[in-house]
């Protein structure tokens, strides 16, 4: 088993554990074909099944050239705002990587670029490229139509911070194809 596949299994297991504790309201299961040596990417197109905990549809299939790796960073109750939790995920985009269009339920979201460049489009706004150190926000219910690495040759990393009701089970819902 490749190192990247082991990391993917570990991250999925960690996400499942955090979800069951109620600390992170996000579920992600990934199915991939044979991995290329040392990269963790499949030799062709990659298909992922991702579901949001509590969504009506049991599975939504997403096909993309390269989907990002998602790693939980933290999930903590907000002490001065009872019933709200702040959750953060690190999203690693390989060169040319992208996320399928999605929504973050009723969460308020801050996207902060840690490295590289991220192309983003929220609702009917214009596409914008954000560089390391730049950020944007998404209102509850916003439609994140474009979220991708702006470079075909360099990786990019994003910190996604969610402020949501502690019991919110739909922090990430991908559009159906």
TrEMBL record:
Location of the Cupin type-2 domain: 90-162
Biased composition (Low complexity): 34-45
UniProt keyword list: Signal
Residue numbers spanned by region Disordered: 34-57
Region forming the signal peptide: 1-29
Pfam families from the UniProt entry: Cupin_2
Descriptive protein name: Cupin domain-containing protein
